[in-house]
Amino acid sequence: METSSKEHTHFFSNNSTVLPVDRSSFKSESSASKEKQSCCGGIKIFLGALSFVYFAKALSGSYLKSTITQIERRFDIPSSLVGVIDGSFEIGNLLIIILVSYFGAKLHRPRIIGAGCLIMSAGTFLIAMPQFFMGRYRYERFPSTINSTVSLSPCLQDKSQTPLSALEKSPAKINAGCEKEAGSSMWIYVLLGNLLRGIGETPIQPLGITYIDDYAVEENAALYIGCVQTVAIIGPIFGFLLGSLCAKLYVDIGFVDLDSVTISPKDVQWVGAWWLGYLIAGVISVLAGIPFWFLPKHLPKAESRKDSSTSSEHSKFITEEDKDQGTSYWHQAKLAEMAKFLPSLKNLFGNPVYILHLCASIIQFNSLIGMVTYKPKYIEQQYGQTSSKTNFVIGLINIPAVAFGIFSGGLIMKKFRIGVLGAAKLSLGSSFFGFLLLLSLFAMGCENSDVAGLTVSYHGTKPMADEEQALFSECNSDCSCSRNDWDPICGEDGVTYVSACLAGCRASSGSGKSTVFFNCSCVGTFESSQNSSAVVGPCQKGNECPKMFLYFLVISVITSYTLSVGGTPGYILLLRCIKPHLKSFALGIYTLAIRVLAGIPAPVYFGVAIDTTCLKWGSKRCGGRGACRLYDSSALRYVYLGLTLVLGTVSIFFSVAVLWVLRKRSSPRDETLSSNGDRGACGTKSRKDNFVNSDQLIQSTYWPEKETRL
């Protein structure tokens, strides 16, 4: 065998013309095969890692939405301030988006994404930290409901026989309480944590998508990015379900004896274990970032893309080897780009379709972001549902409807080969019917619960305009009550009283949740019956409320689906209404405008509007207004739905203007499209223009604040 092998080697060495050809051919095929395997394997690992990151960021973002009311109660802050906290994510994102988008492509993109995950997890952990430094959560409860060994009269007729703990605290006690109450300002750490989340999330989308686009096989790029976006839709489902689970658990679980807790999840003072979900989300973010530290800066390019005219994002920058030769050319190119900036901006803002569509999108996103941010609060206050059930319903019903709507919109576009004009019609129709369905929700609300001194007087009529005076009546005039307390009890007459003292109760028995108050002079005063007992906790909403909640869910799901159908056509319309060389610039302006003019302000002014419907504010131990305890159900419904519909209606008018301009430009006499014959004028020049090209298909599955349609 060895002799034969040597003979063959000698033979091939003598035939020099054959040797190079055969060996190089074999080497070429082998290297191509290895390179293909390496490319496919590397990009799929990156795809899996990026999908997990998208899941992690979507989960933490949706979990924040699910804990809005919990944060508000825990830190005793109004809805407007919660809106500022929610908008801080967008502020963090905007702080470094330009730096990341520009310099990120020059650097090690996977590691930048990994660093972003670490920053995102640090922000998530920071949000949960105040729980461990604020001390235990304290809610308003009459002492006899906490300690059964002391029998106190809620109606304090003789202050001398009552322990100091049941009376208004002395200045010394107030000052001592204020030292601990300083922890209430720790909501700032929640804001800073959310700001960090926004900073950490910034590189994931631009760098991750461009990395896939650079190294994936061209025909697979759209499929890969579609997979990533699909996983991103699954994230909010788990986020809201996690919110539902944590809302069931008491905020200080593991730190206090749960048997001593006298409030239930249906109480407006209930705070769930909001911090627990942030710890879980933070751990998931850390795990999601680990693979990116081991991924290469470059992947082997697929054979089909090596000769492609489209260069990768990374290859557009000068490499170290060519730095000296290309320095002058680089500066010239940059100067040329800067010189083109103002004309490009003028060209972009001179496009009426782009400007009108941008205005319509900004106003519509204002409507949707505000609506989704406060949807859990609306369901809780309007229909008397617990935070746990509210989050469960949103996560399990609304979000799948949104996902199905997005998929349906893309399917309709492909199946019917819809062009620019058709996309505009589909987007407009989706918005019109979606907001029309939303209009029906005005009739699906619950009336205010009967709360003595707030929604009804002690005599069964409408209360006085002055809330402070309306809380007092002849029946409780002999009692030494505080108007600032919120410790609701339910009388046998079906009326809720702000506190046992204001109900005129003079005796109590039992402890904790089973406390019963007797000889309540205000209970039954405006009915023939003389019932005078009451139990801990507010009375339930009317009998019709559960039925109304069911109707609300059905309409809400249909509305979510209808509005989501128009998402993809609207985004495709944006891509096709601009000249190809301005596409990236136009998308950047669009994203920036949505974040600055919708993502940041919408939660704030929606929160301010919702605060105006509050009937009873809580009081902080050191004085000052706390979180709202009771909302006017009718006013809340009109403000929340009314503001959403007004903004939606204005956006529809802009969408109609877009359609009118497109119709005018696509008429037979205006077939020229634009002065230079470019497709950017939004016309329908050819059959080819009626379809989404590969680059548009890659982009079509994402638009700013897509999660707000959930």
TrEMBL record:
Biological process annotations from GO: monoatomic ion transport; sodium-independent organic anion transport
Major facilitator superfamily (MFS) profile domain boundaries: 46-666
Keywords: Cell membrane, Disulfide bond, Glycoprotein, Ion transport, Lipid transport, Membrane, Transmembrane, Transmembrane helix, Transport
Membrane-spanning ranges: 41-60, 81-105, 111-133, 221-251, 271-295, 353-372, 392-412, 424-444, 548-575, 587-610, 639-662
Compartments (UniProt record): Cell membrane
Signal peptide span: none
Domain Kazal-like: 469-524
Catalytic activity: 3,3',5'-triiodo-L-thyronine(out) = 3,3',5'-triiodo-L-thyronine(in); L-thyroxine sulfate(out) = L-thyroxine sulfate(in); L-thyroxine(out) = L-thyroxine(in)
UniProt entry tagged with the keyword Transmembrane: yes
Pfam families: Kazal_2, OATP
GO MF annotation terms: bile acid transmembrane transporter activity; sodium-independent organic anion transmembrane transporter activity
Membrane topology per record: Multi-pass membrane protein
Database matches in PANTHER family: ORGANIC ANION TRANSPORTER (PTHR11388), SOLUTE CARRIER ORGANIC ANION TRANSPORTER FAMILY MEMBER 1C1 (PTHR11388:SF99)
Stated family: Belongs to the organo anion transporter (TC 2.A.60) family.
Name of this chain's protein: Solute carrier organic anion transporter family member
Source species of the chain: Regulus satrapa
Gene: Slco1c1_0
